[in-house]
Every structure is written in structure tokens, then in C-alpha cells.
């Protein structure tokens, strides 16, 4: 079953975020807290959203997303920040169901796309994404400013 996340799901979502970061060899980079997720998912004006996959009454996966905008399409789109399903429940359709729900939301609301990034070494995920019709955008490279570089840029 796929449903919107609820405040009581936050501890499990944060655990899954940490599991994902460990899988991606970046556990040391997770700084988020339960309070951060509660504020950003369920505060007065949420700008980020989450759906969860339940199996036998427990949350086994999640999709965390927010709106982007394409000036070329002239439409919003969904940017999927994280998609993760617990290893012991993979292969049961939870990941596809989460992506299908985001596609349904995008289609219903007239959004132009659903997109995300995947690590180039994550061949199981790449194979899964390609099996549902996703195609890599090889000509684009993600750039990021963070930490000290962000502070220096902000201060001119």
C-alpha cells in the first residue's frame, strides 16, 4: 500500500534515509533530524513531500520529493530526492508502486515530468529505472555548491 507520509512515520523515514546513505557510501553526510523532517514535511507551508510503502503494517520504503519547474515545458515537475525500499522487501513492487504514485500525481496535476538522480555505479537501480521507461540524461552534469563554498558565494 502506498500512502502520503504522516508525522508518526518520521522516525522510520529518517532510519530509511540513513540506510540509503549507508548504501550510497555517504552515511557520514546525513545531518537531518526528526525535527527537521517534521518541520519540512508537516510544517505550516511544506515545500517537500513524502509517500511511504507499507507491507504487513509497517513502512518498508519511501519517496521524498518536491516541485521543480521547467522553463522549457512551462510546467512544474516532481523532483524525486530519495527513493528507498528496505533490502528485505525489494522485488515485491514497492519501488515501482511509489514511482507510479508520483507519476499519477504528476499526470493528475498537469506536471511535465518526474525526474531524479542516480549514482553511476548503482547498476541495480539503473536497471530498475530503465525497466519502467526512465532514460538517463547523459548530456547533463549535476553541479552543487555547499559548505564553505556556499558561504563564500553568498558573501560575494
From TrEMBL:
Keywords of this entry: Acyltransferase, Transferase
Family matches, as Pfam families: Acetyltransf_1
Classification via InterPro entries: Acyl_CoA_acyltransferase (IPR016181), Diverse_Substrate_AcTransf (IPR051016), GNAT_dom (IPR000182)
Coiled coil spans: none
Keyword Metal-binding (UniProt): no
Lineage: superkingdom: Bacteria
Keyword Transferase attached: yes
Positions of the N-acetyltransferase domain: 1-155
MF terms (GO), sorted A to Z: N-acetyltransferase activity
Family, similarity comment: Belongs to the acetyltransferase family.
Protein name as catalogued: GNAT family N-acetyltransferase
Species of origin: Actinomadura harenae
Amino acid at each position: 500500500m502506498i500512502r502520503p507520509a504522516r508525522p508518526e512515520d518520521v522516525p522510520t523515514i529518517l532510519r530509511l534515509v540513513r540506510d540509503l546513505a549507508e548504501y550510497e557510501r555517504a552515511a557520514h553526510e546525513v545531518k537531518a533530524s526528526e525535527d527537521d523532517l517534521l518541520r519540512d514535511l508537516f510544517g505550516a507551508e511544506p515545500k517537500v513531500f513524502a509517500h511511504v510503502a507499507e507491507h504487513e503494517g509497517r513502512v518498508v520504503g519511501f519517496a521524498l520529493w518536491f516541485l521543480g519547474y521547467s522553463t522549457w515545458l512551462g510546467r512544474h515537475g516532481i523532483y524525486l530526492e530519495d527513493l528507498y525500499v528496505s533490502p528485505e522487501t525489494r522485488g515485491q513492487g514497492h519501488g515501482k508502486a511509489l514511482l507510479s504514485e508520483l507519476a499519477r500525481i504528476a499526470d493528475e496535476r498537469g506536471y511535465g515530468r518526474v525526474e531524479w538522480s542516480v549514482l553511476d555505479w548503482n547498476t541495480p537501480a539503473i536497471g530498475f529505472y530503465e525497466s519502467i521507461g526512465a532514460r538517463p540524461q547523459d548530456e547533463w552534469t549535476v553541479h552543487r555548491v555547499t559548505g564553505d563554498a556556499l558561504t563564500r558565494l553568498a558573501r560575494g
